[in-house]
Amino acid sequence: MGTRSTWLAIVFSLITLPAQAAVLMSPVKDADLQYDGILLDGTYDSTITHPDELLGFKVGTRVATPAQIHAAVMHWAEQSERLHVVEYARSHEDRPLIAAFVGRPDNLARLDEIKANLGKLADPRSTTDREASEIIEELPAVAWMAYSIHGNETSGADAAMAAIYHLIASQDKSVTDLIDDMVVIIDPMMNPDGRARFAKSLEQYRGTAPNVDDQSLLHIGDWPYGRTNHYFFDLNRDFFYLTQPETVGRVELINQWRPQLMIDGHEMGPQDTYLMGPPRQPLNDNIDPNLQKWAKTFAREQSAAFDQRGWRYYTGEWFENWYPGYSNYAEYRGSMHILYEQSRMAEDGVRRPEGTVQTYLESVHHQFVSTFANLQTLAKHSQAMYQDFWLGRKNNVSSKGKFANRSYVILANDNHGRTQALVDRLLAQDIDVYTAEADFDVDEATNHLGSTLEDVIIPAGSIVVPNRQPEAPLIAAILEFDAGVKDAVLLEERQKTLRDGSSIMYDTTAWNLTMMYGLKSLTVPEHLTRNLKPYKKPVVTSTPQTDAVAWMVDGGDDRSVAFAARMMERGAAVRFIDKPSEFAGKAFNRGSVMVTVTDNPHNDKLAQLASTTASELDIALVATNSGFGEGELPDWGGEHFRLLEKPQLGIISHGDFSSYDTGATWWGVDASLGIRHSKLDSNALAYTDLRRYNVLVLPSGRWEPDKATREALTQWVENGGTLIAHGNTAGQLASKDGIGNVRALQNSFDSAVDYNIALQREWLATSESLNTDKVMSHTLNTQFSFPWEDTLKPLKEDELKRRDKWLSMFMPSGAMVSGRTDQQHWLTAGTPAELPLLYTDQPLLMSGSDSQAVIRAGVYQPARGGNKRVNRDEGSSDGGNKKQANWWFTLPEDQALHVRMSGLIWPEASQRIANTAYLTREQIGNGQVILFSGQPNFRGSARGTNRLLLNAIVYGPGLGAEPRIAL
């Protein structure tokens, strides 16, 4: 060994020392736990160190740590010419993520050439059929084998380590022949932070004897468990959202290599067997149908390998491919994808219902055998698969193809930071993006509400993505407003819902990027090319002169909230402008932020501080020498320039809180604001000194506060705190034993009339028509009505409860609902009048006259033909434009309510969701309670609603609570 090899040997001795030394790390053997299968079988090159020697235990019998796996692969890279290692990312905890390229030495020497040829084959715009044939004839097969994206699903990574060794060290002809014309890329552990967390819990909970009880902490771990990464993100939902560094690096490398085959090694419930492809319906219809043909071919040969060994398995059943954010993301780029789901065994194995015990080694062996069965299938069919890939890519760019005449448009707006973030994600996935150089018109377009518009002007600066390009299937999957689903699938889903409340929808049914980002967009049924130029990131221009009296950033950009938060964190006083304004010849949106010399008399570096903060955020900073608002607009000394209070934030976690929502909130604060905050243990909340915080966030979860905790929180709010709650936790606070007057829908029916009156009041407050003659009349006018007089008699409480129980069966698993926002409320700064809202089976909030419904579900639009009044008893219509009865609420005259934007929402669910509040704000004493019906930063990508959460955190202490809390 050379110097590096000697160093690695020392590292291994340190890594494996605890395992070799500790008694608890060597469990007592049990006859039931023996498995006589041989994982590594054959003749191996003695110059390549066996993994058992490196690990200090037999590979596949224990969970190797991330450090052990990484060290082993790097050690082998020193020893073998068949192995080349690339580090493609670093986790949040600074652990390396690597891809191990295995192949013949001469193929590894020309990896750049192979990658370039794959790129040429992927773009028919610059490659001819003849060139494609020549490339296909010469290309080796390329496979991407990835494992353990969920850190507590460990067997895949251990199988990957064994597979790498088998491929580089085996001298058996079957193996050398396999890699003779193939490049195998093995991604051995896709989530090292989560795996490290779970491996640590195994150390903590291991006893002296094997534990085969799958309910034991040894098998489960602790909150937040090992499934997720550092910020508790499920990385197998992030493939096109691209929020986490593990995903960003992985997707970049996958997109460069365009593998023919991508496998993803998972684990599932410990009492299950083994699931393999192909998936069942619903399937995303943007995936090339040829891939389903190959899925069956691979499944037959993988199942045959299991049959040979007497191992039980099944295909499909619960696994569908509709949501494009899983690892099957690669299918939208033309790769064959296969999911492995092995029953989870931890290390000690699990006792099965039939009385047998399945060991961890057997689980690892299943993954190992699947890996090589799939590689053998690829070796046989690689050429034919390349031919299908080429035909699919040609169809993507064909003027007569499926994606020929469709373009997606993100309309020009002032939220430059959010728009740039979306464009960055498109560009990262090899999608061609353009900018409109000038205004142009199109004959027809469809908006988020599903309305068809005619003679539409596309303003200059809009982002345009034509669907007719090589990555057309992926573009359609993430930008189309609705994902197609077969009628038969809908029927089956409906039947299952009614039969037993089950579902064939495995995940959310809506994910459109423009809706998630809350950016107004259109679908145009044309291949747009005119008035377009390739996208180029706009240059930010600032005017940070030092002799100004104030500096401002525009509130239309999300980064303005971070600017305010960071400036306050650095000791500056900051003001929030609650009306549109104009200074220094520039118009500013409502919610803009101003820092003045008057508020900061002792800060002689204020200009530099503002400039540095704006530069960090890449947001334009505008200086002004006058506080006079130009035109009929507010001036800086008036009531519309409101002084903010620095947020002192606590995020409640652990216990019964959702780790996903907790992590998304935590990551959102770090990534979007970059300010200090504390995570607090929910189990000790009643005994925590809450006076240190003026903002508390309660993520969604099954949390039910005890009396002491509820009283402590109530007192804290009354003293001036801002309490923010999401999802099911908001539902708890909206129960009859909660905090405040907002109620969950099922707890509101005794006051249904009052809620309806509050709803009518909100509607009337938006009316722009007024009979001034009647107002100015000197005589008593008796010809007016009360809002409740023109509605039908409300249903009785028992009937409302009965109906709600029925309607609640149909709540969505994840769908986009149109929301109407209060454009005068400080919480909606930077938010459009119509905002897409992601709804699941979540609490529905009811806000009356004693609270504020900042956002409600449903957008009013003129109805065709007017609303008819319906008689419940006879089902007849008396005509006229009267208000229509809809269980607890009534619709205004001549108005229809648009509810569904995208995804599966049964009519019953739309009825239940309509006009409930998504976001409420209520004053309680000197403080406030802010409730979100859902999770505002869902998967770190619901940027439209996340802006509301950031507003609540940063602006809440100054705008909604009084007096301010002083430490």
Specify the overall morphology.
Answer: globular
CATH topology label of the largest domain:
Aminopeptidase
Q: How many distinct helices?
A: 27
CA gyration radius, whole angstroms? 30 Å
What distance lies between the first and last C-alpha atoms, to the nearest angstrom?
61 Å
User: What fraction, in percent, of the residue positions are helical?
Assistant: 25-40%
- Estimate the strand proportion: 15-25%
The name of the CATH superfamily of the largest domain reads: Zn peptidases
Structural class determined from secondary elements = alpha+beta
Oligomer: single chain
Count of all domains: 4
What composes the largest sheet?
Answer: 10 strands, mixed
The counted number of beta strands is: 42
Name of the CATH class of the largest domain: Alpha Beta
Second CATH tier, the architecture of the largest domain: 3-Layer(aba) Sandwich
Please explain how this structure is put together:
The chain is globular and about 105 Å long. The longest helix has 38 residues. It starts with a helix and ends in an 8-residue tail after the last helix. With 967 residues, the chain is an alpha+beta fold. Helix 18 runs parallel beside helix 27. It has 4 domains: 395 residues, Zn peptidases (Aminopeptidase), CATH 3.40.630; 128 residues, no CATH class; 94 residues; 233 residues, 3-Layer(aba) Sandwich (Rossmann fold), CATH 3.40.50.880. The N terminus is likely disordered. It is 33% helix and 20% strand. Strand 29, helix 21 and strand 30 form a beta-alpha-beta unit. The protein is built from 27 helices and 42 strands. The strands form 10 sheets. Strands 27, 28, 29, 30, 32, 33, 35, 40, 41 and 42 form a 10-stranded mixed sheet that branches.
